[in-house]
């Protein structure tokens, strides 16, 4: 019964490209989860206060999940200058009131598809293992644990990558 409800509700989710109209939702949704588990850091404010300059103008993308036309989830694909990675999947957030509708899964799939369409070979991400549903989602999307990259975040204790050349 629960799976049927989840499937029905996920059909009401639309993933759309970011526009400036979603900037407050992008910031609010990310501040909400970060502040619940950690503290906001300088790197967070750069991306959340200036998504156009920090993400989009650099060749990245932001996707927004709408449920009944309300922004309830976001995820960014940040262009990297790292020789090993083309993009970082970052700033993924889903409103606590909308969790359980497969929104994270839908956003993650669409971000991976977008990176693939942009010709990316590898996607990188950073997270924290206390975020068990997020880590589980990343593994489900095909990410694998890696180590050794410098991070601007105190909260980061796991780094992962997705090799898209295995999909081609």
From TrEMBL:
<keyword id="KW-0808">Transferase</keyword>
<dbReference type="GO" id="GO:0016747">
    <property type="term" value="F:acyltransferase activity, transferring groups other than amino-acyl groups"/>
</dbReference>
<dbReference type="InterPro" id="IPR052777">
    <property type="entry name" value="Acetyltransferase_Enz"/>
</dbReference>
<dbReference type="InterPro" id="IPR000182">
    <property type="entry name" value="GNAT_dom"/>
</dbReference>
<protein>
    <submittedName>
        <fullName>Acetyltransferase (GNAT) family protein</fullName>
    </submittedName>
</protein>
<feature type="domain" description="N-acetyltransferase">
    <location>
        <begin position="24"/>
        <end position="165"/>
    </location>
</feature>
<dbReference type="InterPro" id="IPR016181">
    <property type="entry name" value="Acyl_CoA_acyltransferase"/>
</dbReference>
<dbReference type="Pfam" id="PF00583">
    <property type="entry name" value="Acetyltransf_1"/>
</dbReference>
